[in-house]
Amino acid sequence: MFRVMASDVGNVFYSVFRMPWLWSEEAISNGFCVSILEAIVDTWVSQYLGVWLTVAIETIYISVQALIYCLLLYSMIGFEWKLGKFLLFYYLFLMCFIYFTFFGMMVVAMTPNHHIASVFVLFFISLWNLFAGFLIPRPLIPIWWRWYYWASHVAWTIYGLVASQVGDKDVEIEIPGFGNAALRMVLKQRFGYNYDFIPAVVAAHVVWVLIFFFVFACGIKFFNFQRR
């Protein structure tokens, strides 16, 4: 098993099919748990400590959490130990944890209680996972639904994780039933991942975090549900 994981083919399919489940379980738990916790504490934390301090505390905690998680996961998968690749790996995981956490905070700020917030969280997470690209690769998604792939922040994270780790490799791999093909071309044609698109992926994560943060801040300011 470890020999397969260490090979280029093993890394590709592990990255595409298994790694998204690993980070999604952790990130989704952040968003789901914070939606309940935030419902309890945001009425006084955001009032007396302020929105900025609340976000700062969450960000510091998530940064440490993501670092520990990435060190363990990166070494266990067997990815190439290069500073640039690891920093991209850490950045994408960090931003993923942050936007899921901010999403949970945002939903609570926009809903009357944590019961309704939990329903919204589960609904959107299921929808995002469906169009994230690891259940159905982007080239196989019907053209009239493909726009939602780009509207899913989860898809951007998976894109960055796969493309940054193995998207720059030109080694030949053998695909049963298709013969030999360059790894870069397999990722581009079969899964729609392009290594040159990584800068846009990095910028998109900042945009998603800012969207969730500002909606959360507006919800805290303008939606004051006194019965929480």
From TrEMBL:
Residues 53-165 form the ABC-2 type transporter transmembrane domain. Keywords: Membrane, Transmembrane, Transmembrane helix, Transport. It is a multi-pass membrane protein. The keyword Membrane applies. One of its GO terms (cellular component) is plasma membrane. It is found in: Membrane. GO terms for molecular function: ABC-type transporter activity. The chain crosses the membrane at residues 51-74, 86-110, 116-135, 147-166, 197-223. PANTHER family: ATP-BINDING CASSETTE TRANSPORTER. This is ABC-2 type transporter transmembrane domain-containing protein. It comes from Cucumis sativus. The lineage of its organism: Eukaryota, Viridiplantae, Streptophyta, Embryophyta, Tracheophyta.
